[in-house]
Amino acid sequence: MSAAVYAEPYKLPAGAMALAVHAMFFMLLYFGVNWRADPPQGMEATLWTPEMMSATAKAAPQVAPVRVEPPLVEQVEPPKPPEPSKLVEPPKLAEPVQPVVPPKADIELAEKKKKKELAEKERQKAKLAEIKKQMERKKIIEAEKARQSAQAERERVRAEQAAQAEQERARAAQAAAIGKVVDEHKARIVARIRSKIVMPPDVPDNARAEFDVTLLPGGSVLSVKLAKPSGNEAYDAAVERAIFKAQPLPLPADVALFNKFRELHLIFSPKE
Amino acid sequence: MNVTQDLSFIHLIGSASVLVQLVMGLLLLVSLMSWWYIFLKMFAVRLAVKLSEEFEESFWNNSDLIKLYHSTTAASGEAGSMGRIFVAGFAEFVKLKKKQGMDNNAVMEGTRRAMRATYQREMDNLESHLSFLATVGSVSPYVGLFGTVWGIMNAFRGLSNVGQATLAHVAPGIAEALVTTAMGLFAAIPAVVAYNRYAHDVTRLSSRFESFMEEFSNVLQRQS
User: Fold this and answer.
1) What is the count of structural domains for chain B?
2) Residue A268: what are its φ and ψ, rounded to 5°?
3) Residues from A in contact with B at Cβ < 8 Å
């Protein structure tokens, strides 16, 4: 048998197909598996431990909820209108006096006189009653007027109070917001510095280093002074290095608030 | 070892140590070859099956063996394994028949030997490269693993030079080390599958050839 008999007729196509398979495989690896090539530069997450959050939350909003006095709900009862029945008594009608039977002679005269007197009396009584009634009415109207004016006065006072409370509340809210921003950024600064600390070995947990840091606008550090050493020199040095390494420190966008950050007193402890 | 954040594929390979790169190269070569053989065998086995079927059909439809012999020898290379077995057997049979004073049994014996020899050669041809596929299938995962272990060793050694150990320091080294395992598996899995498939196909073909040889011997015996 000659070698030609066993010549593989498909050597080239097979080779091409093998190459194609590998090319496909590498394309898949190269394009399909898009392994992240570089760390995202722009984003920087600050890790917030729950205690840190609660610290700022505790520190700041205490100012916020100014107790607003509830508006005077207590309704002042309007004075009862004076009871008319009591005050305005209908004029008593004089009872007709029983004429005493006089002697017959001057009966007529006496009678006439008596009648006259009676009528006179009657008239006077009616007049009196009329005057009384008028006075009563006047009183009622006056009372009503007084009541109205008192109420108006009260309302005015109440509105004034409400406005004042509102103003106070707004002021307090603003102060609280500022305080919150300040506290938040302080916590953020501490967190950022802490993240840069390269912890030396054998630092006791209760080490507590306090630093006075002076900042420049923009977040760079002007000076760092060790206010109270922790007792572990390596730790103090590590924190100081970290403070410089953490530049620029995160300051609030509001430039007006910088004054609150010019001098910072920061406390570091390895435990936190 | 430099700690790098770049995890792109090319970079991974480029920044690996020399030994790991060697392992990668070896695995790539092995993978290429195994795929080449996979396709080669695929075509060869398919062709062998097709030709055998065609030859069997013409053999049973053709009562004139001499005519079949001539057409098959004329086809030469395209005759297929079964055709070649037939040609070898028939040529031997005719040669022995021409010799005077040969025992009938001896003639059949000689014919059978000739056919068996051709059958062995054909089987050898069909089974060629299969052992390579088997080897790739069983060994390349280990080769890949070796590269990975080496790469991870390097990654950890590099880690000892860094003061603060983070995952970011180890991750690139491990990733680049794992690439070799991936390549080893990529070479091994198709090789194993193909080996099993083709071994099965070749066994079926060989049993087909053997039964044909028996049947052909019977036909010759009847004619002698």
Assistant:
1) 1
2) -125, 140
3) 1, 4-11, 13-15, 17-19, 21-22, 25-26, 29-30, 33, 35-39, 198
Q: How far is A198 from chain B (nearest CA, A)?
A: 8
**Which residue of B lies nearest to A40 if distances are taken between CA atoms?**
B5
Q: How far apart are CA A268 and CA A209, in angstroms?
A: 5
Q: What is the residue-level pLDDT of chain B in tens, covering all 224 positions?
A: 344 445 566 777 777 788 888 999 999 999 999 999 999 999 999 999 999 998 888 888 877 888 888 888 887 667 788 889 999 999 999 888 888 777 888 888 999 999 999 999 999 988 988 999 999 999 999 999 999 998 888 888 877 777 677 777 777 778 888 888 988 999 999 999 999 999 999 999 999 999 999 999 998 888 76
ipTM: 0.71
Helical axes B80-98 vs B104-127, angle rounded to 10°: 160
Task: List, as ranges, residues 18-37 from B with C-beta within 8 Å of A.
Answer: 28, 31-33, 35-37
Query: Nearest residue of B to residue A196 by CA position?
Result: B164
Which residue in A198, A202, A245 sits closest to B165, CA to CA?
A198
CATH number of A197-268, picked from 3.50.50.60, 3.30.1150.10, 3.40.50.720, 3.40.50.300 = 3.30.1150.10
